[in-house]
Fold this protein.
Amino acid sequence: MTAKKSKLPPLVILPILSLVLVALVQLAMSNFDVLSPWKGGGFGMFSSLKNPGMRCIVVKISFADGQTKLVSSKQFSKIRSYDQLRAFPKESKLIEFTDELLLLKWKHRYGDSDDYVRSNPLGKSATAIEINLAELIYAKGTISVKEVLSHKRDVE
C-alpha cells in the first residue's frame, strides 16, 4: 500500500502564504525600516514591550545669558516626526525632529516659567537645542530609565 499524497487546493494555500508573507514583511520592516513592532497588522505587537508610550523625549533650550530651559512636550507633540521618533528611535529620526524644532523661534522672557520655555517672538533668542530620548525599562519589579539617543545642535 502506498500512502496518498495530500494535495491542498490552491485556494487553501493562498491565504496561508499571504499571511506568512505579511508577517515576514512586518518582521523585516520593524527590524530594519521605519515600522514599529506595535504597528502594521499586529503581527509584532506582542513581541516587544518597547512601545512608544514607554519612551520620553526631553528637549532643553540654551540661551545666550547662560540659562537652560525645558520645553513642554505639549508644544511639539503634534509634530509628525515626534511620534515617529518615539515609535522608532533612530538617529535619522532624531535629526529630522531636531531640524523641525529649529524652524520654530525659541525665545524666553524674564518672568516666564522657571522650568519651561515657549515658542514666542519676544525675548532672548536660543543659542543651542539638546534633545534626549529615554526609555523606561521594567525588570523584575524595578523601573529604570535608559538613554537611547541624544543630540545637541547650536542654533544659527
Q: What stands out?
A: The radius of gyration is 23 Å. The longest strand covers residues 124-139. Strands lie at 55-63, 68-71, 106-108, 116-119, 124-139, 142-154. The chain has two domains: 10-47, 52-154.
